[in-house]
Write a structure and sequence with these properties.
heterodimer; A: 271 residues; mainly alpha; MetI-like fold; 2 domains; 13 helices; B: MetI-like fold; 80% helix; ABC-type sulfate transporter activity (chain B); Sulfate transport system permease protein CysT (chain B); transmembrane (chain B); membrane (chain B)
């Protein structure tokens, strides 16, 4: 409705500047990776994804990201409910600390987990090792690192929606005799359904993309503990640029698909 | 130490102002306990371990690590580049938000989606993406790989959405009446922007800038392939941490990490305070 304002010379310049900036910084380079991945034809693209090491890396990424997303779903919803619906000492500190993973360097995350969970001298790692449970340089550690970095995403999507829908319906359900679980399942959950979906999609994108933290906790051994992002680095540094571009294009495609899903779903929420 | 005191205070699971039915009390206290325990094991205790490892050898060792020439150079480079990128983001991010909200043109929706691409792309892919256009095999003949500009470029890429996404909703919610009033009283467009719109946007811009700075300081993945990690030249703090870890020097790695961690915490606390102030203004 404000569109009727005519675009003056200043407006055109501003539009030109920001579009150029975004094209040069994001759109063009991203497009180029896709072009490089497919420049030798679609067969080359697929054949560079089928080497055993790359296949293993892709499978590992799916496993790690899958577990991380499920764990973040359960705890993300639980923590959101606790933060919004309950008052307890330290609630505000918890709500601030939940955001910490968003701005901590992935390298610091990796180091932090290694310090606590390594089998040689970790705070808990040595005990866990005597129980025969290895965290660092193994899949559980990689899942932990991935859960850590994607942790706030579900919470950040769900808490504002929970705050907005309020407790009227929940109280009505309870006064009509619904139990706690029934109220959650029939009243609360449908209300936050889309927020959970957004949070999940964002968590998927973040989880498949994690690099630094996983590099440190995994040991980064080709064909064993190497995820897809680590394989991109490895193949590129080994001058297998075709494979690097192919894996990167696959990861970028998946991430952008997540983005588009969110973009398409989001307007529905506003009605 | 922030982390441990937080964990200690979170432990009890009582609910004071209770909106829940009685039977949920035990269940929710249990859920709180489990969630807090999980959060402590995953986040708080490991981060506390970083601080503990940094402090283990005493203040002088901590200080020696940070002031050793290569590490000091890495920290200075990281802070300078992050500040420069944040400054660019403040200007370009606000301009982008303005164009996305107030301008109407073909492709605006696409622009809106492209702005989010850096959020979605894995950081290592972001590095590769920039290398494709600005690296050795650049189709336009620009090769900035292994230079300080590469560091700037990588940080600008990964932090692009922050200011845009914090300013955009505030701009959308602005009442046009105030602007119209200002203009009807004879204020020019520039004056209206500077005196009416900009003050309303400042908290959001600051929040976006804090996020962008925190992210810039901590960036790792996008720099690995692009910046070459040349000591004293393009090596940033995160890469320094990784080098220390690979050399088996965890105490030194923890010292640099502790600095990064404190900056991240400060940014988050500043942000929380800002958001609270924002909400109070709205309400």
């Amino acid at each position: 409705m404000r569109a009727d304002r005519r675009t003056g010379a200043g407006g055109w310049v501003l539009r030109g500047v920001v579009v150029t900036y975004v094209v040069l910084l994001v759109a063009w380079p991203t497009g180029l990776v896709f072009k490089r991945a497919f420049q030798d034809g679609i067969d080359t693209f697929f054949s560079s994804l089928t080497s055993p090491d790359v296949q293993h890396a892709l499978a590992l990424t799916v496993t790690v990201a899958g577990w991380a997303v499920v764990i973040n779903l359960v705890f993300g919803v639980a923590i959101s409910l606790l933060l919004v619906r309950y008052r307890f000492p330290g609630r505000r500190i918890l709500s601030v600390l939940i955001d910490v993973p968003l701005s901590v360097s992935p390298v610091v995350v990796g180091l932090a987990l290694v310090l606590v969970y390594n089998a040689r001298d970790g705070w808990f790692g040595t005990t866990l090792a005597t129980w025969g449970f290895q965290v660092i340089f193994s899949t559980p550690g990689m899942i932990m690192a991935t859960v850590f970095v994607a942790l706030p995403l579900v919470v950040r999507e769900v808490t504002p929606v929970l705050e907005e829908i309020g407790t009227d319906q929940e109280q009505a359900a309870r006064s009509l005799g619904a139990g706690g679980f029934q109220t959650f399942w029939r009243i609360t959950l449908p209300g936050i359904r889309w927020a959970i979906v957004y949070g999940l999609v964002l968590a998927v994108a973040r989880s498949i993309g994690e690099f630094g933290a996983v590099k440190i906790v995994s040991g980064n051994i080709t064909g064993q503990s190497q995820t897809a992002t680590l394989a991109v680095e490895q193949t590129y540094q080994n001058f297998d640029h075709q494979a690097a571009y192919a894996i990167a294009a696959l990861l970028a495609f998946t991430a952008m698909l997540c983005l588009i899903v969110v973009a398409i779903l989001r307007p529905k929420e506003q009605h | 130490m922030v982390a441990t005191s937080g964990a200690a205070r979170l432990r009890p699971g009582r609910t004071r102002r209770t909106p829940a039915a009685d039977q949920l009390q035990a269940g929710s206290a249990l859920a709180l306990g489990i969630s807090t325990l999980w959060f402590s094991l995953l986040v708080l205790i490991p981060l506390a371990a970083v601080v503990a490892a940094a402090a283990a050898d005493g203040w002088s060792d901590f200080w020696n690590v940070l002031t050793s020439s290569q590490t000091a150079a890495a920290i200075v480079l990281t802070v300078t580049q992050a500040l420069m990128v944040t400054a660019v983001n403040v200007v370009m991010g606000t301009a982008l938000a303005w164009v996305l909200v107030r301008d109407r043109f073909w492709g605006r929706r696409a622009l809106d989606i492209v702005v989010d691409v850096p959020f979605a792309l894995p950081t290592i892919v972001a590095g590769l993406v920039l290398l494709a256009l600005y690296g050795q095999n650049s189709p336009v003949g620009v090769n900035v790989a292994n230079t300080r500009f590469a560091v700037f470029l990588a940080l600008a890429f990964v932090t692009l959405p922050f200011v845009v996404r914090t300013v955009q909703p505030v701009l959308e919610a602005l009442e046009p009446e105030v602007e119209e009033a200002a203009q009807s009283l004879g204020a020019s467009r520039v004056t209206t922007f500077r005196r009416v719109i900009l003050p309303a946007l400042v908290p959001a811009i600051t929040a976006g800038a804090a996020l962008s700075f925190a992210r810039g300081i901590s960036e790792y993945g996008s720099l690995v392939l692009l910046s070459g990690n040349l000591p004293n030249h393009t090596e940033v703090a995160s890469v320094r941490v990784l080098t220390y870890i690979e050399n088996g020097n965890r105490a030194a790695a923890a010292s640099v990490s502790a600095v990064l961690l404190v900056v991240a915490l400060l940014a988050i606390i500043a942000l929380d305070l800002l958001q609270r102030r924002l909400r109070r203004h709205e309400g």
